[in-house]
Write a structure and sequence with these properties.
Elements: H1 2-10, H2 18-21, H3 27-42, H4 47-70, H5 76-82, H6 90-95, H7 101-116
């Protein structure tokens, strides 16, 4: 479901800013959330934890879409970080390694889902 949302919104990058401000008015968005809530329920996630899980997933997917389309991690900021002295910024320079957008999205999503125990 997360991949489907990313693909649908990513196909129309102009709507990226609208995903947050109009999420309660979009029938497609509401149906997506309802389906995700059903999946989370089937996975045994209930009550307040289910609400937090949904919001965490939404935050992750929308944030990833925004980074990918509005401030790509492969842009000038990453180039600047890659040129930092490694002895002074070993972790930052390591984060500047180029990772494909699909891998970054799916691996991050897997980490989030692992944390939920889903």
């Amino acid at each position: 479901m997360a991949r489907r949302l990313r693909d649908a919104v990513g196909a129309h990058p102009a709507v990226v800013p609208l995903t947050i401000t109009h999420r309660h008015r979009s029938l497609a968005g509401l149906r997506w959330s309802e389906t995700v809530l059903a999946i989370l329920t089937a996975a045994g996630i209930e009550g307040g934890r289910r609400v937090i899980a949904l919001r965490g997933l939404l935050s992750y997917v929308i944030g990833a879409i925004q980074l990918e389309h509005l401030g790509a991690l492969s842009g000038p900021g990453t180039v600047a970080i890659a040129s930092l002295p490694r002895e002074e910024f070993p972790y930052m320079s390591e984060t500047a390694r180029k990772v494909g957008a699909d891998r970054e999205f799916l691996d991050g999503l897997a980490m989030l889902l692992d944390g939920l125990g889903a």
